[in-house]
Design a protein that fits this description.
197 residues; Tetracycline Repressor, domain 2; 10 helices; elongated; Arc Repressor Mutant, subunit A; 2 domains; mainly alpha
Length: 197
C-alpha cells in the first residue's frame, strides 16, 4: 500500500506526468525489484493507484450512507446525516476529488486495462449503493416505487456532473439554491410516512 499511497500523493500534488519510478522507490524505501514484483511498469502502478483511490472513495461514501441508515432516529436525522455525502460543488476538496474521478474516467477511453479496472470498480460501487437503497426501502426510509438501480445511477451522475457549477461561476446557482435543490431531491425519495424500524 505504501507504493500506492506515495504514487497518489505525487499524482495529486504534481500530476500524473510527474510520477517517476525512481522518486516513488526512494520515497517508500523499496528496491526496484520489489516495485516490479507488484507492478508491471509505471503505467500499471498509476492505474492501480488511481483505481485504489476511487475504491476508497466509493467505500467511504457507501459506508457513510449505510451508517446513517443504521443510526438515524428518523427521516430528518437521516437527511442530516446524508448531508456530508451530497455533491458539494463549493468545497474545493470535493471539487478536486470529482475532477480527478472525471479525468480518470476520460482516460479509460485510451487505456483498455484502466477501462476494465474502472468498470469493475464502478459496478461494485453501484451494487453496494443499490444494496443500501434496497435496505432503506425495507426499513421504510426510501420509496417503494423507486428503482434503486436507477436512483444509484442518477445520484452518481449528479455528483460527477456537479462540477459544472464551478465552470459556470457567477452564472451558476448560489450555495443556498444548490443545497435547497439537493435537499428537495433527496427528500423526494422518502415515503410520505416513513415506517418505524
Amino acid at each position: 500500500m505504501a507504493l500506492i499511497d506515495a504514487t497518489l500523493d505525487l499524482i495529486f500534488e504534481k500530476g500524473i506526468d510527474a510520477v517517476r519510478l525512481d522518486d516513488i522507490i526512494s520515497e517508500v524505501g523499496v528496491t526496484t525489484g520489489s516495485l516490479y514484483w507488484h507492478f508491471r511498469d509505471r503505467d500499471d502502478l498509476i492505474r492501480q493507484a488511481l483505481a485504489e483511490h476511487l475504491r476508497r472513495s466509493i467505500e467511504a461514501t457507501v459506508e457513510g450512507i449505510n451508517t446513517a441508515l443504521d443510526t438515524a432516529t428518523g427521516r430528518d436525522d437521516y437527511l442530516a446525516q446524508l448531508t456530508p455525502f451530497l455533491a458539494n460543488p463549493f468545497d474545493p476538496e470535493h471539487v478536486d476529488a470529482r475532477w480527478r474521478r472525471f479525468e480518470l474516467l476520460v482516460s479509460t477511453r485510451r487505456d483498455p486495462e484502466l477501462r476494465e479496472l474502472m468498470r469493475d470498480l464502478q459496478v461494485r460501487g453501484q451494487r453496494a449503493f443499490v444494496d443500501v437503497l434496497t435496505k432503506a426501502q425495507q426499513r421504510g426510509m426510501f420509496r417503494d416505487d423507486l428503482d434503486p438501480v436507477a436512483v444509484a445511477t442518477a445520484i452518481n451522475a449528479l455528483s460527477l456532473g456537479s462540477n459544472i457549477v464551478g465552470v459556470l461561476g457567477d452564472d451558476g446557482p448560489t450555495p443556498a439554491a444548490w443545497f435547497g435543490l439537493m435537499g428537495f431531491f433527496v427528500a423526494s425519495m422518502f415515503p410520505d410516512q416513513p415506517k418505524q424500524s
